[in-house]
Amino acid sequence: MSYTQMGTFTGLYGLVALMMSLPAGLLAKRFGERSVLSVGLLLATVGLLLVALAESYVQGLVARTLWLIGYRLAFICVVTAVAVTVPGRWRGNAMGLVGALTALATIIGSGFSSHMQVSVGWRLSMVGFAVLTLVAAACFLYFYRPAKHSGVRAATTRPGQSGLFSAFRIPIVWTIPLLGLANAGGFAATFFIPSVVRAEFHGGPAMSSTIIAAAYSLAIVVNPLCGWLADRLDRWLVMAAMSAVMIPACILMSSRNVYVFGLATALLVALGHAAANQVYPTAAGLLRGRDTGPIMGIVGLGSGIFGYLGPQALGWMRDYSGGFDLGWRAVMCTTIGILLLLLQLKRYADAHPAGQRAA
User: Fold this and answer.
1) DSSP of 75-109, one letter per residue?
2) What is the CATH number of the domain that holds 79?
3) Cβ(62)–Cβ(50) under 8 Å?
4) pLDDT digits 0-9 by tens, 78-95
5) Is the dihedral of CA 169, 174, 176, 180 positive or negative?
6) Rounded to whole angstroms, what are the CA distances from 61 to 67, 78, 99?
7) pLDDT (tens digit per residue) in 214-256
8) Domain count across the chain
9) Which residues form the domain of 39?
Protein backbone atom coordinates (compact mmCIF):
# COMPACT_ATOMS: atom_id res chain seq x y z
CA MET A 1 0.00 0.00 0.00
CA SER A 2 1.02 3.58 -0.59
CA TYR A 3 0.91 5.99 2.34
CA THR A 4 -2.35 7.39 0.94
CA GLN A 5 -3.90 3.90 0.77
CA MET A 6 -2.72 3.15 4.28
CA GLY A 7 -4.29 6.41 5.41
CA THR A 8 -7.58 5.38 3.80
CA PHE A 9 -7.50 1.95 5.45
CA THR A 10 -6.72 3.55 8.81
CA GLY A 11 -9.19 6.38 8.24
CA LEU A 12 -12.09 3.94 8.02
CA TYR A 13 -12.13 4.19 11.81
CA GLY A 14 -13.08 7.84 11.57
CA LEU A 15 -15.57 7.38 8.74
CA VAL A 16 -17.42 4.72 10.72
CA ALA A 17 -17.27 6.93 13.82
CA LEU A 18 -18.85 9.76 11.83
CA MET A 19 -21.65 7.49 10.62
CA MET A 20 -22.26 5.50 13.79
CA SER A 21 -21.57 7.73 16.83
CA LEU A 22 -24.95 9.49 16.85
CA PRO A 23 -26.95 6.36 15.91
CA ALA A 24 -25.11 4.44 18.64
CA GLY A 25 -26.09 7.03 21.24
CA LEU A 26 -29.71 7.05 20.06
CA LEU A 27 -29.84 3.25 20.04
CA ALA A 28 -28.45 3.20 23.59
CA LYS A 29 -31.24 5.55 24.64
CA ARG A 30 -33.92 3.52 22.86
CA PHE A 31 -32.86 -0.06 23.65
CA GLY A 32 -30.44 0.31 26.56
CA GLU A 33 -26.64 0.31 26.57
CA ARG A 34 -26.41 -3.35 27.62
CA SER A 35 -28.25 -4.72 24.58
CA VAL A 36 -26.61 -2.41 22.04
CA LEU A 37 -23.09 -3.04 23.38
CA SER A 38 -23.60 -6.78 23.17
CA VAL A 39 -24.78 -6.55 19.56
CA GLY A 40 -21.80 -4.33 18.77
CA LEU A 41 -19.31 -6.85 20.12
CA LEU A 42 -20.97 -9.63 18.10
CA LEU A 43 -20.67 -7.53 14.92
CA ALA A 44 -17.02 -6.83 15.73
CA THR A 45 -16.44 -10.57 16.11
CA VAL A 46 -17.91 -11.25 12.65
CA GLY A 47 -15.86 -8.41 11.13
CA LEU A 48 -12.61 -9.74 12.58
CA LEU A 49 -13.36 -13.20 11.20
CA LEU A 50 -14.00 -11.70 7.76
CA VAL A 51 -10.69 -9.81 7.90
CA ALA A 52 -9.00 -13.17 8.47
CA LEU A 53 -10.67 -14.48 5.29
CA ALA A 54 -10.03 -11.40 3.10
CA GLU A 55 -8.11 -12.05 -0.14
CA SER A 56 -7.86 -8.49 -1.46
CA TYR A 57 -7.57 -4.87 -0.36
CA VAL A 58 -11.25 -4.20 -1.11
CA GLN A 59 -12.39 -7.26 0.85
CA GLY A 60 -10.22 -6.13 3.72
CA LEU A 61 -11.85 -2.67 3.64
CA VAL A 62 -15.35 -4.17 3.73
CA ALA A 63 -14.48 -6.52 6.59
CA ARG A 64 -12.77 -3.75 8.57
CA THR A 65 -15.86 -1.56 8.11
CA LEU A 66 -18.13 -4.19 9.69
CA TRP A 67 -15.62 -4.73 12.49
CA LEU A 68 -15.49 -0.99 13.21
CA ILE A 69 -19.28 -0.58 13.12
CA GLY A 70 -19.51 -3.14 15.88
CA TYR A 71 -16.65 -1.53 17.78
CA ARG A 72 -18.23 1.93 17.60
CA LEU A 73 -21.56 0.69 18.91
CA ALA A 74 -19.76 -0.95 21.82
CA PHE A 75 -17.51 2.05 22.55
CA ILE A 76 -20.32 4.61 22.77
CA CYS A 77 -22.25 2.24 25.02
CA VAL A 78 -19.22 1.80 27.31
CA VAL A 79 -18.93 5.53 27.98
CA THR A 80 -22.71 5.75 28.31
CA ALA A 81 -22.66 2.94 30.88
CA VAL A 82 -20.01 4.81 32.88
CA ALA A 83 -22.03 8.03 32.71
CA VAL A 84 -25.27 6.45 33.95
CA THR A 85 -23.86 4.18 36.67
CA VAL A 86 -21.04 6.25 38.21
CA PRO A 87 -21.75 9.35 40.37
CA GLY A 88 -20.58 12.58 38.77
CA ARG A 89 -17.85 13.23 41.34
CA TRP A 90 -16.18 9.92 40.41
CA ARG A 91 -16.60 9.91 36.63
CA GLY A 92 -13.13 11.25 35.94
CA ASN A 93 -11.61 8.44 37.97
CA ALA A 94 -13.88 5.89 36.29
CA MET A 95 -12.95 7.02 32.79
CA GLY A 96 -9.31 7.19 33.84
CA LEU A 97 -9.55 3.54 34.88
CA VAL A 98 -11.21 2.66 31.56
CA GLY A 99 -8.40 4.47 29.74
CA ALA A 100 -5.70 2.73 31.76
CA LEU A 101 -7.19 -0.69 31.05
CA THR A 102 -7.49 0.21 27.36
CA ALA A 103 -3.82 1.17 27.25
CA LEU A 104 -2.90 -2.07 29.02
CA ALA A 105 -5.01 -4.00 26.52
CA THR A 106 -3.16 -2.27 23.67
CA ILE A 107 0.19 -3.44 25.02
CA ILE A 108 -1.06 -6.97 25.66
CA GLY A 109 -2.82 -7.07 22.29
CA SER A 110 0.30 -5.98 20.42
CA GLY A 111 2.32 -8.78 22.01
CA PHE A 112 -0.49 -11.28 21.48
CA SER A 113 -0.77 -10.34 17.80
CA SER A 114 2.99 -10.52 17.21
CA HIS A 115 3.25 -13.91 18.91
CA MET A 116 0.26 -15.30 17.01
CA GLN A 117 1.57 -13.96 13.70
CA VAL A 118 4.95 -15.63 14.17
CA SER A 119 3.39 -18.87 15.40
CA VAL A 120 0.37 -19.38 13.16
CA GLY A 121 0.18 -16.43 10.73
CA TRP A 122 -1.70 -13.14 10.71
CA ARG A 123 -5.02 -14.67 9.63
CA LEU A 124 -5.29 -16.89 12.69
CA SER A 125 -4.11 -13.92 14.75
CA MET A 126 -7.28 -12.08 13.65
CA VAL A 127 -9.32 -15.16 14.55
CA GLY A 128 -7.76 -15.00 18.02
CA PHE A 129 -8.94 -11.42 18.44
CA ALA A 130 -12.42 -12.46 17.29
CA VAL A 131 -12.52 -15.12 20.00
CA LEU A 132 -11.43 -12.58 22.64
CA THR A 133 -14.18 -10.19 21.48
CA LEU A 134 -16.78 -12.94 21.78
CA VAL A 135 -15.57 -13.71 25.31
CA ALA A 136 -15.84 -10.00 26.17
CA ALA A 137 -19.47 -9.96 24.96
CA ALA A 138 -20.30 -12.94 27.18
CA CYS A 139 -18.64 -11.32 30.20
CA PHE A 140 -20.48 -8.05 29.71
CA LEU A 141 -23.85 -9.77 29.35
CA TYR A 142 -23.26 -11.70 32.55
CA PHE A 143 -21.79 -9.00 34.81
CA TYR A 144 -23.28 -5.65 33.74
CA ARG A 145 -26.49 -4.49 35.40
CA PRO A 146 -27.84 -1.16 34.17
CA ALA A 147 -29.25 1.35 36.64
CA LYS A 148 -33.02 1.03 37.06
CA HIS A 149 -33.52 4.73 36.42
CA SER A 150 -30.80 5.14 33.83
CA GLY A 151 -29.64 8.64 32.97
CA VAL A 152 -29.85 7.57 29.31
CA ARG A 153 -33.58 8.10 29.53
CA ALA A 154 -33.77 10.57 32.39
CA ALA A 155 -34.55 13.67 30.33
CA THR A 156 -37.53 12.21 28.49
CA THR A 157 -39.96 13.18 31.25
CA ARG A 158 -39.31 16.90 31.06
CA PRO A 159 -42.02 19.02 29.44
CA GLY A 160 -40.91 20.26 26.06
CA GLN A 161 -37.71 18.24 26.21
CA SER A 162 -38.99 14.74 25.47
CA GLY A 163 -38.21 12.72 22.39
CA LEU A 164 -35.29 10.92 20.90
CA PHE A 165 -33.62 14.11 19.61
CA SER A 166 -34.26 16.44 22.56
CA ALA A 167 -30.55 16.79 23.36
CA PHE A 168 -29.85 18.39 19.98
CA ARG A 169 -31.93 21.52 20.54
CA ILE A 170 -29.22 23.51 22.30
CA PRO A 171 -26.81 25.38 19.98
CA ILE A 172 -23.78 24.68 22.20
CA VAL A 173 -24.26 20.97 21.46
CA TRP A 174 -22.86 21.42 17.98
CA THR A 175 -19.51 22.65 19.25
CA ILE A 176 -19.05 19.50 21.34
CA PRO A 177 -17.94 17.25 18.43
CA LEU A 178 -14.82 19.38 18.06
CA LEU A 179 -13.71 18.19 21.50
CA GLY A 180 -13.18 14.77 19.97
CA LEU A 181 -10.15 16.27 18.20
CA ALA A 182 -8.34 16.39 21.55
CA ASN A 183 -6.65 13.09 20.66
CA ALA A 184 -5.57 14.24 17.20
CA GLY A 185 -1.87 14.07 18.03
CA GLY A 186 -2.01 10.75 19.82
CA PHE A 187 -4.11 9.14 17.11
CA ALA A 188 -1.75 10.30 14.37
CA ALA A 189 1.35 9.21 16.27
CA THR A 190 -0.04 5.74 17.00
CA PHE A 191 -0.75 4.89 13.40
CA PHE A 192 2.31 6.48 11.78
CA ILE A 193 5.02 5.41 14.23
CA PRO A 194 6.05 2.35 12.16
CA SER A 195 6.32 4.47 9.00
CA VAL A 196 8.32 7.22 10.72
CA VAL A 197 10.68 4.71 12.37
CA ARG A 198 11.29 2.99 9.07
CA ALA A 199 11.72 6.16 6.98
CA GLU A 200 13.51 8.51 9.39
CA PHE A 201 15.44 6.20 11.72
CA HIS A 202 15.85 3.12 9.48
CA GLY A 203 14.49 0.96 12.29
CA GLY A 204 12.42 -2.18 12.15
CA PRO A 205 9.29 -3.54 13.85
CA ALA A 206 11.16 -4.10 17.13
CA MET A 207 11.94 -0.38 17.47
CA SER A 208 8.37 0.59 16.58
CA SER A 209 6.95 -1.88 19.10
CA THR A 210 9.25 -0.56 21.83
CA ILE A 211 8.16 3.04 21.25
CA ILE A 212 4.47 2.12 21.13
CA ALA A 213 4.75 -0.04 24.25
CA ALA A 214 6.51 2.77 26.14
CA ALA A 215 3.83 5.27 25.06
CA TYR A 216 0.94 3.10 26.21
CA SER A 217 2.77 2.18 29.40
CA LEU A 218 2.87 5.89 30.19
CA ALA A 219 -0.84 6.09 29.28
CA ILE A 220 -1.60 3.51 31.99
CA VAL A 221 -0.27 6.01 34.55
CA VAL A 222 -1.47 9.24 32.92
CA ASN A 223 -5.12 8.14 32.48
CA PRO A 224 -5.99 7.62 36.16
CA LEU A 225 -3.84 10.61 37.17
CA CYS A 226 -5.73 12.94 34.83
CA GLY A 227 -9.04 11.42 35.94
CA TRP A 228 -8.14 12.02 39.59
CA LEU A 229 -7.20 15.64 38.85
CA ALA A 230 -10.37 16.21 36.80
CA ASP A 231 -12.57 15.06 39.70
CA ARG A 232 -10.81 17.34 42.19
CA LEU A 233 -10.01 20.40 40.07
CA ASP A 234 -11.74 22.21 37.22
CA ARG A 235 -12.27 19.65 34.40
CA TRP A 236 -11.90 22.28 31.71
CA LEU A 237 -8.58 23.54 33.04
CA VAL A 238 -7.23 19.99 33.36
CA MET A 239 -8.20 19.29 29.74
CA ALA A 240 -6.66 22.60 28.63
CA ALA A 241 -3.41 21.82 30.46
CA MET A 242 -3.21 18.43 28.75
CA SER A 243 -3.65 20.07 25.34
CA ALA A 244 -1.04 22.72 26.18
CA VAL A 245 1.59 20.06 26.93
CA MET A 246 0.79 18.30 23.65
CA ILE A 247 1.70 21.39 21.58
CA PRO A 248 5.51 21.27 22.21
CA ALA A 249 5.31 17.48 21.90
CA CYS A 250 4.06 17.96 18.33
CA ILE A 251 7.12 20.11 17.59
CA LEU A 252 9.46 17.48 19.02
CA MET A 253 7.97 14.83 16.73
CA SER A 254 10.16 16.31 13.97
CA SER A 255 13.34 15.57 15.93
CA ARG A 256 15.95 13.35 14.27
CA ASN A 257 17.03 12.03 17.65
CA VAL A 258 15.23 8.75 18.28
CA TYR A 259 15.09 9.29 22.06
CA VAL A 260 13.54 12.76 21.71
CA PHE A 261 11.13 11.35 19.14
CA GLY A 262 10.22 8.51 21.52
CA LEU A 263 9.60 10.95 24.39
CA ALA A 264 7.40 13.17 22.18
CA THR A 265 5.47 10.13 20.99
CA ALA A 266 4.91 8.94 24.56
CA LEU A 267 3.57 12.36 25.58
CA LEU A 268 1.27 12.66 22.57
CA VAL A 269 -0.12 9.15 22.87
CA ALA A 270 -0.53 9.15 26.66
CA LEU A 271 -2.03 12.63 26.96
CA GLY A 272 -4.15 12.20 23.84
CA HIS A 273 -5.45 8.88 25.12
CA ALA A 274 -6.31 10.43 28.50
CA ALA A 275 -7.96 13.45 26.84
CA ALA A 276 -10.08 11.19 24.64
CA ASN A 277 -11.43 9.50 27.77
CA GLN A 278 -11.89 12.61 29.91
CA VAL A 279 -13.77 14.51 27.21
CA TYR A 280 -16.87 12.37 27.82
CA PRO A 281 -17.48 13.23 31.50
CA THR A 282 -16.46 16.81 30.72
CA ALA A 283 -19.12 17.11 28.00
CA ALA A 284 -21.68 15.38 30.21
CA GLY A 285 -21.10 18.06 32.83
CA LEU A 286 -21.54 20.82 30.24
CA LEU A 287 -25.09 19.65 29.46
CA ARG A 288 -26.05 18.16 32.80
CA GLY A 289 -29.64 16.90 32.78
CA ARG A 290 -29.77 16.01 29.07
CA ASP A 291 -29.99 12.57 27.45
CA THR A 292 -26.68 10.86 28.16
CA GLY A 293 -26.65 8.41 25.25
CA PRO A 294 -27.08 11.00 22.47
CA ILE A 295 -24.56 13.33 24.14
CA MET A 296 -21.95 10.56 24.17
CA GLY A 297 -22.68 10.01 20.49
CA ILE A 298 -22.24 13.72 19.75
CA VAL A 299 -18.85 13.74 21.46
CA GLY A 300 -17.85 10.69 19.41
CA LEU A 301 -18.40 12.65 16.19
CA GLY A 302 -15.24 14.67 16.86
CA SER A 303 -12.96 11.66 17.01
CA GLY A 304 -14.62 10.48 13.82
CA ILE A 305 -13.83 13.72 12.01
CA PHE A 306 -10.11 13.45 12.66
CA GLY A 307 -10.09 9.66 12.58
CA TYR A 308 -11.34 9.76 8.99
CA LEU A 309 -9.74 12.90 7.59
CA GLY A 310 -6.57 12.90 9.70
CA PRO A 311 -4.80 9.71 8.54
CA GLN A 312 -5.70 10.44 4.92
CA ALA A 313 -4.44 14.02 5.22
CA LEU A 314 -1.23 12.91 6.93
CA GLY A 315 -0.71 10.21 4.31
CA TRP A 316 -1.27 12.72 1.52
CA MET A 317 1.11 15.24 3.12
CA ARG A 318 3.74 12.49 3.46
CA ASP A 319 3.43 11.56 -0.22
CA TYR A 320 3.38 15.25 -1.24
CA SER A 321 6.27 16.58 0.88
CA GLY A 322 8.38 13.45 1.15
CA GLY A 323 8.52 13.77 4.94
CA PHE A 324 6.37 13.81 8.05
CA ASP A 325 7.17 17.31 9.34
CA LEU A 326 4.27 18.97 7.48
CA GLY A 327 1.85 16.52 9.06
CA TRP A 328 3.11 17.17 12.59
CA ARG A 329 2.74 20.92 12.04
CA ALA A 330 -0.87 20.37 10.99
CA VAL A 331 -1.50 18.30 14.13
CA MET A 332 0.04 21.07 16.24
CA CYS A 333 -2.32 23.66 14.73
CA THR A 334 -5.27 21.38 15.46
CA THR A 335 -4.17 21.01 19.07
CA ILE A 336 -3.85 24.78 19.48
CA GLY A 337 -7.39 25.13 18.18
CA ILE A 338 -8.67 22.60 20.71
CA LEU A 339 -6.90 24.44 23.54
CA LEU A 340 -8.67 27.69 22.57
CA LEU A 341 -12.01 25.88 22.28
CA LEU A 342 -11.63 24.33 25.74
CA LEU A 343 -10.99 27.75 27.28
CA GLN A 344 -14.01 29.19 25.47
CA LEU A 345 -16.29 26.37 26.63
CA LYS A 346 -15.04 26.87 30.19
CA ARG A 347 -16.20 30.48 29.95
CA TYR A 348 -19.60 29.27 28.74
CA ALA A 349 -19.86 26.70 31.56
CA ASP A 350 -18.96 29.35 34.16
CA ALA A 351 -21.49 31.82 32.72
CA HIS A 352 -24.31 29.25 32.52
CA PRO A 353 -24.73 27.26 35.73
CA ALA A 354 -26.00 23.69 35.55
CA GLY A 355 -29.60 24.64 36.27
CA GLN A 356 -29.68 27.16 33.42
CA ARG A 357 -28.05 24.70 30.99
CA ALA A 358 -30.61 22.03 31.77
CA ALA A 359 -33.58 24.39 31.59
Assistant:
1) HHHHHHHHHHHS-GGGHHHHHHHHHHHHHHHHHHH
2) 1.20.1250.20
3) yes
4) 888 887 788 777 878 888
5) positive
6) 10, 25, 27
7) 888 898 999 899 888 988 888 889 989 998 999 999 889 888 8
8) 1
9) 3-358
